[in-house]
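Need a sequence for this fold. Nothing fancy.
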């Protein structure tokens, strides 16, 4: 038996209107911001807070149930899961420069930095993809092993200021489990100070195949032998590598490498190390480089002719690398915006050197 249902035009309109309403309200429901967070995640944060010293009351909003609204916390709008924890010191140490910033005020830094310990309850935040605890005052503690279990992380910033006694000890190899990581910053913001953070081998690093940015500036890598370079060579996505003040010496930089995997690299900073062997030729295969900083390696003495292969260079720092003799034949590095040559011993006139760039205007 067939059943025919007939709606007159008016009731059909009403029906369509009702349908629209139902559709619209269900859409609104799924796109509205979830305000209260998951109870387990709220508890995880409260336990994490208990081990922190918060002199300036930065975490005073961490009360009640709306933990997605707490300062430093961001949740996924659809799932209500915590995805971001940003507790960077709001009064940071000034960026490294040879000129000390005298307007910077330690008392303010010390007041606004978080101290204490990092409680493993953080592991309760299973969807955490962004963690920034940089420039706080975790006096004398190790970077905890458990950080390696936060496997959803894409961004990890534990940058510290060694002068004011932050992280010490070995960089935990468990960080090699963070296979989704795009950004890893474990740098000492206060490079020229001797930091107590070190590594004996960077083999763990080779597992971070999604890494785009790596900064280990200030960490002592003197005992990693050549493992640092072999690990970097397993990271084809790497765009920016900063290893300033890492106590890398000539024995740790092989003169040749069978293949170079990290040719996407745009920025390489190995300034203030002790790289002293004859110059590694593989460097000139990194032809995408826009920024190269070799400054402060007093015995480096590169062969200058080869730099002309790095045609994309915009910033080149060759400060104090033991150059002698004629100025550089850099005429065809037409994208160059800054070039630093201080503390080398050149003969010859600057006019001749500058006239080399006249090719660039045609
Ligand atoms: C979540 O909602 C907040 C506030 O409504 C908004 O600022 C943020 O951009 C949204 N995030 C996403 C990933 O949609
Ligand atoms: C540094 O900051 C503290 C606290 O805000 C303030 O009392 C002090 O006067 C400041 N010192 C200077 C030299 O500005
Ligand atoms: C701030 O300085 C005081 C006195 O020097 C020190 O005891 C304290 O631990 C510092 N605060 C933090 C959070 O490190
Ligand atoms: C890490 O944090 C510091 C400041 O605390 C900042 O200067 C640096 O750019 C951050 N690193 C990355 C990769 O965002
Ligand atoms: C991953 O973590 C486990 C447990 O912490 C550890 O035993 C293992 O060595 C780690 N793997 C890597 C590649 O670091
Ligand atoms: C280049 O990278 C691939 C995968 O990322 C790796 O299998 C290979 O061993 C690397 N080559 C060298 C010379 O490290
Ligand atoms: C800069 C630095 O500390 N270099 C040291 C690295 O390690 C070797 C021995 O393995 C020392 O001779 C260097 O002085």
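Here you go.
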């Amino acid at each position: 038996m067939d059943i025919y249902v007939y709606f007159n035009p008016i009731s059909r309109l009403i029906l369509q209107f009702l349908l629209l309403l139902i559709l619209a309200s269900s859409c609104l429901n799924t796109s509205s911001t979830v305000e209260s967070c998951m109870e387990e995640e709220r508890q995880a944060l409260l336990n994490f807070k208990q081990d922190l010293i918060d002199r300036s009351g930065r975490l005073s909003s961490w009360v009640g149930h709306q933990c997605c609204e707490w300062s430093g916390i961001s949740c996924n709008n659809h799932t209500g899961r915590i995805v971001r924890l940003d507790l960077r010191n709001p009064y940071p140490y000034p960026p490294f420069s040879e000129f000390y910033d005298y307007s910077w005020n330690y008392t303010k830094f010390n007041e606004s930095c978080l101290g204490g310990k990092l409680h493993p309850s953080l592991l309760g935040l299973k969807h955490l993809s962004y963690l920034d605890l940089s420039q706080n005052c975790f006096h004398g503690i190790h970077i905890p092993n458990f950080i390696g279990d936060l496997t959803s992380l894409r961004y990890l910033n534990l940058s510290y200021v060694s002068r004011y006694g932050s992280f010490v000890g070995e960089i935990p190899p468990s960080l090699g489990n963070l296979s989704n990581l795009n950004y890893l910053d474990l740098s000492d913001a206060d490079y020229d100070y001797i930091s107590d953070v070190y590594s004996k081998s960077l083999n763990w690093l080779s597992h971070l195949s999604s890494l785009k940015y790596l900064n280990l500036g200030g960490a002592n890598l003197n005992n990693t032998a050549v493992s640092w370079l072999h690990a970097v060579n397993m990271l084809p996505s790497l765009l920016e590598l900063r290893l300033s003040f890492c106590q890398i010496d000539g024995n740790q930089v092989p003169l040749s490498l069978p293949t170079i995997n990290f040719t996407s690299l745009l920025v390489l900073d190995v300034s203030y190390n002790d790289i002293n062997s004859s110059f590694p030729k593989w460097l000139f295969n990194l032809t995408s480089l826009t920024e190269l900083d070799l400054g402060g390696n007093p015995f480096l003495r590169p062969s200058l002719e080869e730099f002309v292969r790095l045609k994309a260079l915009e910033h080149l720092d060759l400060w104090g690398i033991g150059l002698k003799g004629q100025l550089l034949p850099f005429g065809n590095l037409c994208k160059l915006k800054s070039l630093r040559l201080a503390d080398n011993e050149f003969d010859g006139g600057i006019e001749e050197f500058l006239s080399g760039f006249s090719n660039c205007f045609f």
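For context: The two ends are 86 Å apart (CA to CA).
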